[in-house]
């Protein structure tokens, strides 16, 4: 049996056959979906000559505690026992006030990965849109991504594979180059209609999608497609680069016009948001000069154009954590922790759907979410901080104009008597205010007009930076664009305060910009509650660069996009039996999931694998010794522990060894 404490601050697990109850103290997420799993490892303890049970508790896919070993009566469940959900017995006195879904019982212990697979949910799978070709080979472009079943289903761990569903007579031998890869090439033996299925599966779920590929007879003549794009571009890391190509097919034949972006050269990995779209976005893992290529294919002929990109900077585009002192992802941390300190003290007014998973909303006129943590500043109370010169804030906001709260200068982020970020929602074109208070009550207030695109009924990224040392600069960026203030009052350094950070509202103070605002119509006061949703709150103890701000404004969070293996040397090799040839590849990665290690392995995909020998099968750059004549295909597999990707295939032709004749 396991149950929740009456105050919602603990879970208790009682093992089978009346083992003593074991409690784990935690702040249970109220008003949101949470995945719980208990794995009870039962066995015989020879030292105590007793059967025992050790429970492990998982919350949102992560193990949060391991119980102590307890003696149990036996290892066999009593037949006839009933299982009750949401109460201790039928019509019992210990009801759970909430909802349940997706109960699972297993007859053996689950591994940590198996529990995480259940939590993450069924993956989303796309085999791509149906298309037509007039050649023997077709490119399948599939994708597997994380589940959208619930806001808490974050992450993906699944294996993918392609299968042939149907084919015209004679086409049953359609062959995939790399059936395990999300995107691969397939050989179509005859003309006709083929259906291929992409499946993604893990230990708990399986999902699939199908694509229809039609092979036509090649026409007597064909006008190839055209591609044009800018010759050069530059980007400052970690910001991404927007790309756009003009693609056309003069005769709209013979097949479907399709686009593919790729890296032709460069010192590091490149991720494309959508490599099959005319307009996409590229993220570079390493600074340097790259050549990116856009290729258009009409099903028979292709054309391409290149763009040279100079990427500058040193920041990691998938890990803007330098100086990150507080982080509230709301749903992506176990038990909604502040992930830097591990604090579970935050009290949330209400959870709703956010920009990613759950977000924070303050429905009442005096509501707010209380982090119960002070700003990351050291020093004497009411004096300027001694450990930092700047504080910066990054978050996403959604102003819901249908909200019925009558608010003014709504508080997005507030710490009483020292700092505030306010939104002038009472105006038709709402702007922003940045407030900082220092020693003796002196303060500065910067007012910014509404952005060109008012942040109403849409998700908007906000970045605000405060000069805590002197108050010389208070900066605001909206969706990555710097805003220009239209007025300001005073100038003041900051002062250290012990009050907690408040999100989406604020407590009432006696006056000044943090005090009540008079409603001239009713004679009462406006609410300072933000009429909308706030999500992905980050607090930095330094000023961020414009490139970092642009990176944060690009996407709410970073998910594992998988490794990027690529062949660094020639795609075709040949030699004689007994020769040893160099085999060169490279593998890049986004560093996710956290704590993972990138692992590479060479494999033979065609030919007898005993006919060649790798020098080091796990090294990207290695050698291959030719042992037996024949044709072989090899490729490198790269895994980050969660996702697997495959390089292009290298074809190796091994010729028979010759006889050396020496003439004198």
Give structural notes.
By secondary structure, this protein is an all-beta fold. It has five domains: 2-120, no CATH class; 124-215, Immunoglobulin-like, CATH 2.60.40; 226-295; 325-554, Jelly Rolls, CATH 2.60.120.200; 564-655, Immunoglobulin-like (Sandwich), CATH 2.60.40. Strands 26, 27, 28, 30, 35, 36, 37 and 42 form an eight-stranded antiparallel β-sheet that branches. The chain has a seven-stranded antiparallel β-sheet with strand order 29-39-31-32-33-34-38, with no helix packed on it. A hairpin with a 3-residue loop joins strand 31 (410-415) and strand 32. The model has no long low-confidence stretch (mean pLDDT 90).
What is the straight-line distance between the termini? Answer: 92 Å
Which CATH architecture of the largest domain?
Sandwich
Oligomeric composition of the shown chains: single chain
Number of discrete domains: 5
Radius of gyration: 30 Å
Helicity level: under 10%
CATH class of the largest domain: Mainly Beta
């Amino acid at each position: 049996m396991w149950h929740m404490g009456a105050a919602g601050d603990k879970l208790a697990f009682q093992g089978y056959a009346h083992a003593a109850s074991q409690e784990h103290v935690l702040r249970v997420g109220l008003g949101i979906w949470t995945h719980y799993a208990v794995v009870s490892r039962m066995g015989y303890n020879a030292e105590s000559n007793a059967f025992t049970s050790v429970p492990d508790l998982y919350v949102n896919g992560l193990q949060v505690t391991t119980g102590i070993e307890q003696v149990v009566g036996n290892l066999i469940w009593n037949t006839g026992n009933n299982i009750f959900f949401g109460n201790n017995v039928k019509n019992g006195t210990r009801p759970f006030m909430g909802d349940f879904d997706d109960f699972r019982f297993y007859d053996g212990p689950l591994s940590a990965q198996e529990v995480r697979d259940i939590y993450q949910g069924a993956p989303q799978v796309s085999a791509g849109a149906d298309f037509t070709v007039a050649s023997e080979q077709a490119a399948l472009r599939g994708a597997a991504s994380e589940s959208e079943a619930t806001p808490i289903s974050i992450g993906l761990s699944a294996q993918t594979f392609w299968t042939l569903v149907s084919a015209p007579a004679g086409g049953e031998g359609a062959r995939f180059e790399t059936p395990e890869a999300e995107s691969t090439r397939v050989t179509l033996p005859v003309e006709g209609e083929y259906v291929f299925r992409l499946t993604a599966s893990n230990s708990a779920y399986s999902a699939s999608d199908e694509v229809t590929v039609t092979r036509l007879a090649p026409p007597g003549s064909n006008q190839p497609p055209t591609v044009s794009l800018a010759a050069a571009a530059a980007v400052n890391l970690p910001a991404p680069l927007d790309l756009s190509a003009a693609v056309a097919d003069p005769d709209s034949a013979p097949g479907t016009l399709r686009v593919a972006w790729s890296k032709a050269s460069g010192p590091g990995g490149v991720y494309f948001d959508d490599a099959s779209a005319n307009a996409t976005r590229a993220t570079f893992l390493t600074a340097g000069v790259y050549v990116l290529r856009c290729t258009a294919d009409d099903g028979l002929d292709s054309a391409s154009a290149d763009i040279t990109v100079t990427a500058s900077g040193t920041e990691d585009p998938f890990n803007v954590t330098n100086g990150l002192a507080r982080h509230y992802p709301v749903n992506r941390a176990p038990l909604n922790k502040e992930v830097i300190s591990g604090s579970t003290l935050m009290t949330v007014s209400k959870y709703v759907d956010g920009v990613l998973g759950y977000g924070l909303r303050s429905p009442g006129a005096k509501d707010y979410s209380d982090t119960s943590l002070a700003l990351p500043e050291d020093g004497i109370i009411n004096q300027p901080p001694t450990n930092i010169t700047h504080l910066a804030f990054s978050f996403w906001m959604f102003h819901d104009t249908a909200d019925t709260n009558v608010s003014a200068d709504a508080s997005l982020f507030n710490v009483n008597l020292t700092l505030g970020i306010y939104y002038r929602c009472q105006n038709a074109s709402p702007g922003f205010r940045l407030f900082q208070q220092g020693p003796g009550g002196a303060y500065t207030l910067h007012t910014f007009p509404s952005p060109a695109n008012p942040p109403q009924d849409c998700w908007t990224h906000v970045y605000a930076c405060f000069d805590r040392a002197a108050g010389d600069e208070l900066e605001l960026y909206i969706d990555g664009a710097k805003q220009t203030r239209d007025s300001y009052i005073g100038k003041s350094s900051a002062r250290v305060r012990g009050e907690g950070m408040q999100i989406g509202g604020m407590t009432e103070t006696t006056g000044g910009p943090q005090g009540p605002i008079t409603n001239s119509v009713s004679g009462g006061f406006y609410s300072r509650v933000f009429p909308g949703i706030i999500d992905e709150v980050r607090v930095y103890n330094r000023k961020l660069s414009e490139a970092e701000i642009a990176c944060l404004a690009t996407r709410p969070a970073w998910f594992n996009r998988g490794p990027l293996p690529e062949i660094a040397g020639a795609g075709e090799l040949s030699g004689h039996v007994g020769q040893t040839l160099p085999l060169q590849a490279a593998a890049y990665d986004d560093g996710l999931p956290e704590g993972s290690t990138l692992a590479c392995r060479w494999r033979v995909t065609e030919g007898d694998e005993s006919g060649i020998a790798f020098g080091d099968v796990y090294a990207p750059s290695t050698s291959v010794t030719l042992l037996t004549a024949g044709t072989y295909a090899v490729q490198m597999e790269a895994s980050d522990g969660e996702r697997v990707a495959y390089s292009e295939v290298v074809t190796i032709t091994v010729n028979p060894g010759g006889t050396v004749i020496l003439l004198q």
